[in-house]
Write a structure and sequence with these properties.
Chain B: Keywords: Cytoplasm, Ribonucleoprotein, Ribosomal protein. Chain B: This is Translation machinery-associated protein 22. Chain B: Belongs to the DENR family. The complex is a heterodimer of chains A (181) and B (197). Chain A has 181 residues and is of the alpha+beta class. Chain A has 2 domains: 79 residues, Sulfate adenylyltransferase; 79 residues, Roll (Sulfate adenylyltransferase), CATH 3.10.400. In chain A, 27% of the residues lie in helices and 31% in strands. Chain A contains 7 helices and 10 strands. In chain A, β3 and β4 form a beta hairpin. In chain A, 33% of the residues are buried. With 197 residues, chain B is an alpha+beta fold. Chain B contains 6 helices and 5 strands, in the order ααααββαββαβ. Chain B has a 5-stranded mixed sheet, covered by helices on one side. In chain B, a hairpin with a 5-residue loop joins β1 and β2. In chain B, α1 packs across α2. The longest helix of chain B is centred in the middle third of the chain and has 31 residues. The N and C termini of chain B lie far apart (61 Å). About 3% of the residues of chain B have low confidence. The chains are: A alpha+beta (181), B alpha+beta (197).
Chain lengths: 181, 197
């Protein structure tokens, strides 16, 4: 999604009204219920939220100068900066050490990388297809990517072939290096 | 429960655990040991040999693949270093040219070219110049299709010192900043070389 992304792709920037900010927060909490406890820390009441509209209908939301989440169509997707602050709130999968290199260069994650001994998938029933997942790595604490499941986690376990997770945002991609100023 | 604060490497901007995958590991290590010694200890604390052995044993992807991975990472690192050196050499060999051009009568204009190599935001710099010298200042393309900053008014010396200071902040003190003086032609009305303002 952010293969190519630069300052030229920004169409407009505007400040978000506090009423819109409130609905945004409720939406975020409804998507990730665990965020409720910390939502006021993530987006403080007096914070300055900015909406940055970009190419391909991507919208970024920056809280106090740091891009915290973005959306394409309807779903809100957190950026890695936010995930690092509060990783517990999001559904997580783990890849093995051999896959890290490819993930960091932006590849989709293949099933074997998710099923090998170093990797981890949630217990059954797991997550559905199209669900948003945070990708962690073996022996590493922080998340390194955010993706969307191309098949349900149960299918990944049983089929074990082909693309498992579609890459949305990873460490070192243009969005990671993007700063609002 | 509260928010976690994460350290990000000052060199490669990743969380320090992932420094090894960026190819800048050497500089990352230096940075980490200077700024967050306790984190450095926990990540790279063991001596190198022990560490590598432990990694091999603890790895789940098999020794063979692990070794290959290590090799690839080393390759990446050397590649990255070479690239950085090349870039630095390019930066050091290029120079900034400040041209003073004469317009009508006593009016002059200053054109600054060659800044794009140094990752300086031309538009922002133009804006600061405009407010600093209280003149018109803009970014435009010159004859060679390169971007340059055009300042109205005779401020070449001030601009030079400012740019030198800017480069010094970036640690590029040796970069040459050259001033050129385009002499006013005797009949300014017939000049064709000056681009339209």
């Amino acid at each position: 999604m952010f293969r190519k992304f630069s300052r030229e792709d920004i169409h407009s920037r505007s400040n978000v009204k506090s009423s819109v900010q409130r609905t945004l927060k409720t939406k975020l909490v409804s998507q990730f219920p665990k965020l409720e406890e910390v939502i006021d820390e993530l987006v403080p009441k007096k914070s300055h939220v900015e909406l940055i509209k970009c190419e391909d209908k991507i919208q970024l939301y920056a809280v106090d100068g740091e891009v915290c989440f973005f959306q394409k169509f309807d779903e809100l997707i957190p950026t890695l900066k936010l995930v690092h602050k509060f990783p517990e709130a999001f559904p997580t999968v783990q890849v093995d050490r051999g896959a890290i290199k490819f993930v960091l260069s932006g590849a989709n994650i293949m099933c074997p990388g998710l099923t090998s001994p170093g990797a981890q998938l949630p217990e059954a029933p797991g997550f559905e297809e199209d669900a948003l997942v945070i990708v962690k790595a073996e022996n590493k604490e922080s998340a390194l990517a955010i993706g969307r499941l191309l098949m349900s986690t149960e299918d990944i376990k049983s089929i074990n072939k082909g693309h498992g997770v579609e890459m949305i945002h990873h460490l070192g991609d243009p969005l990671w290096n993007f700063s609002v100023e | 429960m509260s928010l976690r604060s994460v350290i990000y490497c000052g060199v490669c901007s990743f969380p320090p655990e992932f420094c090894e995958f960026t190819g800048k590991l050497k500089r990352c290590k230096v940075w980490l040991s200077e700024n967050h010694p306790e984190k450095y200890q926990s990540l790279y604390g063991d001596t190198e040999v022990e560490d590598a052995a432990a990694k091999l044993a603890g790895s789940s992807i098999g020794e063979e693949r692990e070794e290959k991975l290590e090799k690839d990472l080393l390759k990446l690192q050397s590649k990255q270093e070479n690239r950085e050196q090349r870039e630095l050499a390019k930066k050091l060999s290029s120079k900034v040219i400040i041209k003073r051009e004469a317009r009508t009568k006593r009016k002059t204009m200053v054109a600054i070219a060659g800044l794009e190599v140094f990752e300086i935001d031309m538009k922002k710099l133009a804006k600061t110049f405009a407010s600093k010298f209280a003149t018109g200042c803009s970014v435009s393309k010159n004859i060679e299709k390169k971007e340059e900053i055009i300042i109205q008014g005779d401020v070449a010396d001030e601009a030079e010192t400012y740019i030198q200071k800017l480069l010094e902040e970036k640690g590029l003190k040796e970069v040459k900043v050259e001033q050129m003086d385009m002499k006013k032609k005797k009949k300014p009305t017939t000049t064709t070389t000056t681009p339209a303002a």
